[in-house]
Amino acid sequence: MPAKGKHRRPKSARFTRSIAVASTGGAALALPLLGAAGAQAATPQSAPASVSNKAESVSQKAVESVPVAAEKKAATRTYEVKAGDSLSKIAGEQNVSGGWKKLYRDNRQVVGSDPGLIHPGQKLTIGKKAAAPSGANEAKAPKAAKAPQASAKKATPAKAAEAPSSSSGFTMPVEGATVSTPYRMSGGMWSSGYHTGVDFAAATGTSLKAVGAGTVVSAGWGGAYGNQVVIKLSDGHYAQYAHLSSLSVSQGQSVTAGQQVGLSGATGNVTGPHLHFEIRTTPDYGSDVDPLAFLRSNGVSV
């Protein structure tokens, strides 16, 4: 018979259970450590594809957003001259780099040798490389020109009319001045083929006189002529004074022979101060007559 007594539970079962507990507990304790190690060992992940695509899109838009205006500025284009235009006005409105002088050099063959004479219908090229200018004369692109003014600067009040230099009541437009460019000087310097007036050498600020009694029909900015005064004389002719630094009369005002109408200067398309003087049969360009012959016929010694 087997010996009496209590059976003891097999130790192997306890061992297994404790191993299981220990194993479970170890796993529980090890998990945080493994998580931390895993976090430290993990390599950085690249940005999501959507973020990368967005960055590329922004970069592409930045490239595509180059101002179109810059391209237009550099591109060659054609401008048709309208009534009332001048090279300085066109250069300002069309943002010509280099101003009206660059515009003139680029279109010298179209405009001709006088930058002050452009006509409606002429087609000017804007944006092309200018050819090197040749020769030297007032009709070329002037080295200095003042920008158009909103209104002509008024000179000091006109002096009392001086006695005319002839018994017929006419006088010289500027005293003691010599002629620097004669009337109808021909050549390729003027689009009309000749000089439409006479230029008197006169330093800036020289007093300019009405050659005869009449009425001021124009006093203000005249484009390429700068500040100008046009007087309808009592005999029906018109006297034009151009490139003035300031004006002493206004439109509609009556003047007498010898009365100051303004001061000489270098406004408009010029290379230096002088008086451009014309006698016309109408107030418009193209109706000119010999100004010196006109003065001589009215008893003025020229």
Tags for this entry?
Glucose Permease (Domain IIA), 302 residues, Membrane-bound Lytic Murein Transglycosylase D, Chain A, 10-stranded antiparallel beta sheet, elongated, single chain, two-stranded antiparallel ribbon, 12 strands, alpha+beta
Please describe what this structure looks like.
It is elongated, with a radius of gyration of 44 Å. It has seven helices and twelve strands. It has helices at about 10-40, 50-65, 70-75, 85-95, 100-105, 110, 290-295; strands spanning about 75-80, 125, 180, 200, 205-210, 215-220, 225-235, 240-245, 255, 260-265, 275-280, 290. With about 300 residues, the chain is α+β, with helices and mostly antiparallel strands. Among the domains are: about 70-125, Membrane-bound Lytic Murein Transglycosylase D, Chain A; about 180-295, Distorted Sandwich (Glucose Permease (Domain IIA)).
Mean pLDDT: 73
Per CATH, what is the topology of one domain? Glucose Permease (Domain IIA)
CATH class of one domain: Mainly Beta
> CATH superfamily assignment of one domain?
Glucose Permease (Domain IIA)
Say how many strands there are: 12
